[in-house]
Design goal:
2 domains; cytoplasm; amino-acid biosynthesis; alpha/beta; ATP-binding; Carbamate kinase; Archaeosine Trna-guanine Transglycosylase, Chain: A, domain 4; 18% strand; globular
């Protein structure tokens, strides 16, 4: 696979940069020198005409430093309290760093449920776009203070991919503490080899990634690979590179072949389909027969009530729902036009029978083709 990152950077207008916990942590506290170094590089990128969104970890490290704690607390409320203290210090440090080169920053704290709902997703996108139009650097992190398991992104690799999709970025740069993806853990294997280009994320790539865990953050190499899969599907390239290399962002911008380059798919999904396929959280399952499965996955059709054989879970109209074949294999995700209760009443029926059964027929389709994403589009 040809490494065309140089041409990608030449045409790029908007870049998402993610920096991980390992880079932002020093002696169990915030690495202030790194904060200022990365901020200076982003300022240079902006001065060259780019829009940059920064996804930053580090609130826990900053909180530990400010509170004088030797290690992260075990209890979740205490961790969230430390993050709350640290988030203020983290953004203040970024503010000082960017102010030194004449730039303003804005703090954006998100939870995943803020992106699951389409209206809130669009509101978040509009806010970030407005900040960029005002030449303000959005600094995005998960809102650890209020996040619980049900609304957590889980790691900032996942968050950075969602943000890249949200703002329709041209490139996602994921900075970490190793040079990129290796065929084995380079920290324990001297014969480990860097993989410079990944054209398709196959099982061997996932196997390499699973052997390289993270040290301090919640995500290891595997979460970065999953992030790459998401953005590549949307037509966005991603680079994993070592953030401690001097001026790494500028060197990448100038086309130097550092790290691992994940090439995007040739076809590009629409923003709406990316949101449905990668951001929504399914509220239930619809099982369909073989005829409906073929119509949807091979012929690009909508899901009609005649092809439905079972409905699992309770959900309202407009909810994201997975649809599966008879064997339980997930075929995709879509937004339903009817509630679970109503779908159970009309499943197996022809569209002409919907009004007789429900008293009204606002839609022929259970899921319209424009409101579903099938698995093959994500592969």
């Amino acid at each position: 696979m040809k490494d065309n990152r140089r041409s990608c950077f030449k045409t790029a207008r908007r870049i998402v940069v993610k920096v991980g916990s390992n880079l932002l942590t020093k002696d169990n506290g915030l690495n202030v020198d790194f904060v200022h170094a990365i901020s200076r590089q982003i300022c240079i990128m902006i001065d060259r005409g780019l829009q940059v969104v920064l996804v930053s970890s580090g609130s826990m490290a900053a909180g530990l430093r400010k509170l004088g704690l030797a290690k992260r607390p075990e209890e979740i409320p205490k961790r969230q309290a430390v993050s709350a203290v640290g988030q203020a210090s983290l953004i203040m440090e970024y503010e000082k760093a960017f102010e030194a080169c004449g730039k303003k920053v804005a703090q954006v704290l998100l939870t995943s449920d803020g992106l699951y709902q389409r209206k809130r997703y669009l509101n978040a996108r509009n806010t970030v776009h407005t900040l960029l139009s005002w030449h303000i650097v959005p600094i995005i992190n998960e809102n650890d203070t209020v996040s619980i398991e049900e609304i957590k992104f889980g790691d900032n690799d996942t968050l950075s991919a969602m943000i890249a999709l949200l703002v329709n970025a041209d490139i996602l740069i994921n900075l970490t503490d190793i040079d990129g993806l290796y065929n084995k853990d380079p920290r324990t294997n001297i014969d480990a080899e860097l993989i410079p280009v990944v054209s398709t994320i196959k099982k061997d790539i996932e196997r390499y990634a699973s052997d390289i865990p993270g040290a301090l953050g919640t995500g290891g190499m595997m979460t970065k690979i999953r992030a790459a899969r998401k953005v590549n599907t949307a037509g966005i390239p991603m680079i994993i590179a070592q953030g401690t290399k001097p001026d790494i962002l500028i060197r990448l911008l100038e086309g130097e072949p550092h790290g691992t380059y994940f090439a995007p798919k040739s076809h590009k999904m629409t923003n709406r389909k990316c949101w449905i396929g990668f951001t929504t959280k399914p509220r239930g399952v619809i099982r369909i027969d073989d005829g409906a499965a073929k119509a949807i996955t091979q012929n690009g059709k909508s899901l009609l009530p005649a092809g439905i054989v079972d409905v699992i879970g309770e959900f309202g109209a407009g909810s994201p729902v997975e649809f599966t074949n008879g064997g339980g294999e997930v075929l995709g995700t879509g937004l339903v036009n009817y509630s679970a209760e109503d779908i159970r009443k009309i499943m197996g029926l022809k569209t002409s029978e919907i009004k007789r059964k429900l008293g009204e027929k606002p839609y022929d389709e259970i899921i319209h083709r424009d409101n579903l994403t099938v698995v093959w589009e994500c592969d």
